[in-house]
Amino acid sequence: MKDILDELAAARRTMGKGSLPAGDAYTVELRRRYDAPIDDVWDAITSPERLRRWLKPVTGDLRPGGKFELDGGEHGEILHCEPPRLLKMTWLYGPDADDWPGTSEVEVRLAPGPADDTEFELIHAAVLAEPLFPTYGPGAGGVGWDLHLLALTRLLADGVTLDHEAVQKSPEGREFIRRSAAAWGEAHLAGGGEPDQVAAAVKATTTFYAPEPT
Fold first, then answer.
1. What are φ and ψ of residue 121, in 5° steps?
2. HSE on the CB side for 191, CA within 13 Å?
3. Mean pLDDT computed over 5-13
4. CB neighbour list of residue 208: distance below 8 Å, 6 or more residues apart
5. Which residues fall within 8 angstroms of residue 135, CB to CB, at 6 or more apart?
6. Which residues contact 192 (CB under 8 A, 6 or more apart)?
7. Residue 6 DSSP one-character state
């Protein structure tokens, strides 16, 4: 339990502002350090064999200008790739997503640390009109990324592949989700969110990711 919850404290979370081709955007930003060399972290975020072990199975042309699709519906185009420091892509989800190009992008930045470790930064930008934001706030994407980065941590540390479904159903995983949603609520408040809206968004996000067992 402690090891899982320690991962929440390992990351710094921010809700910021940005711009996309489709208009003004909010950003979900995660920053943390991985005790692994930059080339290993880069391989973990770009190799299809390793991506499926912490994110989801991926298919497509994983080169700049190429299109990809995850086993879950997320898909997009590789915009920039500068090994081993920068990966940027469009990030669309849902049957109608292709009707709204330029509405969501994910960027990952890596920098070598002083002890053969890696500084990791993930920025997910989505347009303000994106329909999930009024209900869930930054936790809509933030909790999901927290869960995936938990899996990436285990993969880099000891080669373990986490079962996402099992984690989310376990008591430890449900507590992780609850605390992750609360942490994104704090980032939302710091970003100017109204307290009542933030409280409602945290509750909705927690219920979405960890519904009460039936």
1. -135, 130
2. 22
3. 91
4. 136
5. 201, 204
6. none
7. H
